[in-house]
Amino acid sequence: MPKRKNTFSSRAGRLAQRAVHAGWAWAQRTGSVTAARPGRFRFRALGTGTRLAFPLGTVFGEPWIEIGAHCIIGEQVTLTAGLMPDLDLGPDPILRIGDGVVLGRGSHVIADTTVIIGSDCYVGPYVYVTSTNHSYDDPHQPIGKQWPRMEPVEIGPGCWIGTGAVVLPGARIGRNVVVAAGAVVRGTVPDHAVVAGAPARVVRRWTSAEGWQPPLRTPAPVPIPEDATPDQLRALSALDDEAVAHLATLSDPPPARLPELETEG
Fold first, then answer.
1. What is the rounded distance in angstroms from the CA atom of residue 70 to the CA atom of residue 76?
2. Which one, of 125, 128, 121, lies nearest residue 96 by Cα?
3. Would you call the peptide bond into 199 cis, given omega within 30 degrees of 0 as the criterion?
4. pLDDT in tens, 189-235
5. Cα torsion at 142, 148, 154, 159 (round to 10°)?
């Protein structure tokens, strides 16, 4: 009985595989969108150092979309302004994304009316942010044929939105808020809060008077000394748990240099 031939086990197969990977890497580099290379897109603003990864998701209404500097927009991210392409949405921007924002792969930001994402927000993959929801007032009409409801959405600076979260129309999320994975957010969320669930509820909050309540169960990370070298950090990554625990007991603020004992693997 003849042996089955695995195409990719042959030298020609391996070369073909390398060529495919190299071609895809070239397409990713060439197809990404930046301020210097916007392609067919004409964003109202696209900041320095910002990149929309290729392949892109659905993008339209870009004359009413502002994206700040040093943002990372992952693959297959949808950014839309208006209900459909080629609408005149007036003189003001509809979707505003601040500086240093990260939007994870497969996320959607649907701005049929104003949506604001503050600076330094980190949005995980497959997050859905929308200013529009279906209405179902008329029980005799298909829901998809009824005029939708629109309410502005605002996400404050410094937030972390976990994987698969949904931010609904009318949501007002404060500064430095953590939204747990899979949460469904509506209404107002105060600053420095952690919300989880569907609908999302505050499960932890920080105030200047009481700190975190309920208290955090894990110790705060040890800050990295400013003059730490890459070699020292690589050595630290190889330390065992006992050495890391010892590092956590070092003086506060941390010493100017990492002790030699802590940098030896």
1. 19
2. 121
3. yes
4. 999 999 999 999 999 999 999 999 999 988 888 788 888 888 887 77
5. 20
Contact 159, 175 (CB under 8 A): yes
For the four alpha carbons of 77, 72, 44 and 127, in that order, the dihedral sign comes to positive
- pLDDT tens digits, one per residue of 79-136: 999 988 888 889 999 999 999 999 999 999 999 999 999 999 999 999 999 999 999 9
92 dihedral zone (left: phi>0; alpha: psi -120 to 50; beta): beta
**Backbone dihedral angles phi then psi of residue 51, each to the nearest 5 degrees:** -140, 130
Mean of all residue pLDDT scores within the chain? 88
Q: Are residues 171 and 251 in the same domain?
A: no
Asked, for residue 33, whether it belongs to a domain, the answer is: yes
Round to whole Å and give the CA distance between 16 and 12: 6
Contact between residue 166 and residue 176 where contact means Cβ atoms under 8 Å apart: no
225 found inside a domain: no
Provide the domain count of the chain: 2
State the pLDDT confidence band at 258, using cuts at 50, 70 and 90.
very low
* Inter-residue contact 131 to 147 (CB < 8 Å): no
Domain assignment of residue 246, yes or no: yes
* Amino acid (1-letter code) at residue 239: L
- Tell how strand 108-111 and strand 128-130 pair up: parallel
Tell me, yes or no, whether 80 and 148 share the same domain: yes
Same domain, 190 and 250: no
Measured in degrees and rounded to the nearest 5, phi and psi for residue 2 equal -65, 145
Beta strands 201-207 and 193-196, pairing class: antiparallel
Say yes or no: 148 and 246 in one domain.
no
Helix (H, G, I), strand (E, B) or coil at 35: coil
Give yes or no: residues 192 and 241 share one domain. Answer: no
Same domain, 32 and 119: yes
